[in-house]
């Protein structure tokens, strides 16, 4: 960083107390301050002022004129106009938090699946109506402009969407908070379906710039890699360590303002982009070796090129590890720099800073904080460890062994030599305390060790996160109990049960009801008398008394039908398939994975198709028409998951073109599922499927979104399904299948006792094998997961009860009045599942932070 950059950098971050801020302002000449105050006049929120702002950005920011403006240009100009208002609020929020100097929470998540930003910002600030009118006066429709926005490709599933919901709630509830993530140049991939197969296409979402981010090119942090560690004695004779890096990369900040709903609070997510310390080597360039001249630039920029680089080879593994350290190193140094401006002693660091590890991805923040405190700040180990353990909290999101990160010791030693030493020291001191309490229990020591004695040795990141955090939480009641009973059971014995808690996930009703389903949100507000339910979701219970009101039921189901028509149009546009909006819409959209059992769903569809083929015309008249809708991406290297997508599309090709069946059954796979597509799909659901093998889904949040929008659930007794069932009641949910406590015994039986396959499932598999849905050999590996693979995910075990539950769904849907009542009660009883409730629990039980409402502008 140059001297000028350092001065500018210092100037922009000083003033973390009221006194310091006033002292710095006093250095500015009074005439200059008066001029700034005179001309710092926020733009108005009336239609005329908004239109002027949009035109201003058209002619200056975009350098265009009304004569060459298309919808995309209109979107860009409008987005910059809206962003101006967010920046005003963001500046006031940051300045107010600076003066108040409260304890802040820093949320570290490798994914933030934000979705579209403009509609969310307009609704949060109550500006949708004036912007609608202003754009209309300028010759645009706001709906068309909103459709021009591209989803930010900064996540791929539930983990990232949960983080986005939590940031929305933190802002809405006035908590002082920052998020930290990576600014990926490419998202995971765009999904295209070719001949029924998933094809991955690069998702370069930044093609036309991103108006919702604020480049902070003056904020860059050096991130070291490789090299070696040397020892030396300090002036007090203490042995100290110094890491001599072999490579240094710059982390450059990009800020994304996150507005709270109906509040002035606007918080921040800081995303890091990797850049080289120098653009190219001039010596190589002058000698004509142009590739080597830009080699450092390419290597540096690779770190944030792709969300989750493929790690099924050594280079990919190292890049992913590099990605994680780059992110936590930059984030921690930013947090520490902000803290050090307060001149507080290090002992107060946990009183000012709470850091939440969202899954195991940011766990390298633990040895990094220890390195800073011990190596750079000179603290004693015990004091540094006390600070560290009081600072971190850890959210576990899985019980699947393959999702619990491990890194090989040789790779860590090569890439982060000092961090490996610190991890070994943490482990040594921890095991010494365990041995004092449980002498001679070598099995326990091996079980709880951070270092797994494999070939080669590996570091168990989840264990490191547990040991270093003062609170560890699961994300649903069942999940939290399972992790205490299984993967973290030894730590209950060693650390005590108080270390572990539950924080059931939640979703933001602002995005997933008000924005995604505005007609329903408006109807609810009309019935309840206000939009207060958007910040106090428990108020939805007031709808319960109208559940049997026929006039209200009609209004409710008319909106549902309108949403279904909107989805039929999207299906036609994306797939060419025409579906009947009067049919039952049965939806399963989520990441494609064996444990989520989309395979069982499509096997059930084949069973339904086979039965329809056996019926005569009179029998078919009594059948409930059903549209079965799938969506979701399979990891590029996940062969079985990709075969499930192929089978879904092959079955759809057969069923959708069968004239005997017509509209009685349609099968649809919607490609490239993302947040904006979900906002169309979810309000249109009649029933959604959440059918993971019991004990495998940590929580799920799509189940909450579907039910909040008046949909019923067909699901297993797993994850948050259980708590949803407890809230909405038995009549609004169709549960089936084995319970989590039965799963291991059932797997044992499947593995060793040659249990015959469910006969109805056997008949379905026979249809696949005889070529009904295309070349049978293609799907043999899928079938093998049930036969040769001994049915690890218990499809055969649950298939009978799954079919029975589907029959119950059909019968229930025939009674339109009763179904409307169920739909209303689903929404009315979802108050518990707001992300606001979850964030309040985190704030009170883990972070120990208080709201800091930003005063009204006037």
Automatic annotation (TrEMBL):
Signal sequence range: none
Domain of life: Eukaryota
Enzyme Commission number, as recorded: 2.4.1.1
Swiss-Prot/TrEMBL keywords: Allosteric enzyme, Carbohydrate metabolism, Glycogen metabolism, Glycosyltransferase, Pyridoxal phosphate, Transferase
A GO BP entry: glycogen catabolic process
Region (Disordered), start-end ranges: 1-20
Catalytic activity: [(1->4)-alpha-D-glucosyl](n) + phosphate = [(1->4)-alpha-D-glucosyl](n-1) + alpha-D-glucose 1-phosphate
Residues modified as N6-(pyridoxal phosphate)lysine: 705
Transferase recorded as keyword: yes
GO MF entries: glycogen phosphorylase activity; pyridoxal phosphate binding
Cofactor(s) named in the record: pyridoxal 5'-phosphate
GO cellular component terms, A-Z: cytoplasm
Main function: Allosteric enzyme that catalyzes the rate-limiting step in glycogen catabolism, the phosphorolytic cleavage of glycogen to produce glucose-1-phosphate, and plays a central role in maintaining cellular and organismal glucose homeostasis.
NCBIfam families registered for this protein in UniProt: P_ylase (TIGR02093)
Protein name, per record: Alpha-1,4 glucan phosphorylase
